Amino acid sequence: QSVLTQPPSASGTPGQRVTISCSGSSSDIGSNSVYWYQQLPGTAPKLLIYRNDQRPSGVPDRFSGSKSGTSASLAISGLRSEDEADYYCAACDDSLSGYVFGTGTKVTVL
Amino acid sequence: QVQLVESGGGEVQPGRSLRLSCAASGFTFSSYGMHWVRQAPGKGLEWVAIMYSDGSNKYYADSVKGRFTISRDSFKNTLYLQMNSLRVEDTAVYYCARDVSIAAAGIDYWGLGTLVTVSS
Question: Quick one: closest CA in B to A5, which residue?
Fold first, then answer.
């Protein structure tokens, strides 16, 4: 089963901007919307971004998503200590008729 | 509000079976595709299976195909995962999750998860 590729870690100081990349293929990101999830330690994942760049109500506008071709990215601006978590991208995969997740990125606030 | 509550997890020996349940509330269960997703200890998220809203289609990850069966009861607003021939590598927290559509487009809501431990 294919997975989407993310960097294992990212970090920044409070107030900085952090960007997380997500690389896929033509059968997943290339032809479907990208979703992003935040998972705080010991908790279930929470939807952060849907349909590439849309924020659910309640998600701060410090979080933004974008997609181009077979890649996507999540940006966190004005980094805060409470943003320290694992972040996952995901998309449907037409070749598998399923859903694939990214490898996950641990964000650390220095 | 949308609520998904998993149950049925526990410790089981390799080769045995277990059935997970997910009680859904706060939305029209029959109008959404539903997923199972798992997370092994200290590892990332792994998609397991999806069932479309009307039960017409089911798809599985290669790692569980032929051993796991997803089903749903729209009268009880409950999603199930029958897990047979369990292996040590199936040890994980299993999450029930709702799709944004009637089929497969993306996950919006997650349950809190139930832990399955496969060990001799």
Answer: B44
Q: Read off the tokens for B117.
A: 């431990």
With a cut of 90, say whether residue A1 has pLDDT above it.
no
What DSSP string describes B6-29?
EE--EEE-TT--EEEEEEEESS-G
Whether A37 and B59 lie within 8 Å, measured CB to CB: no
A98:B104 CB<8 A? yes
Main-chain phi, psi angles of B8, to 5 degrees: 105, -5
CB pair distance less than 8 Å for B106 and A50: yes
Inform me whether the C-beta atom of residue B27 falls under 8 Å from chain A C-beta atoms. Answer: no
8 Å CB contact between A109 and A83: yes
What pLDDT does residue B85 have?
98
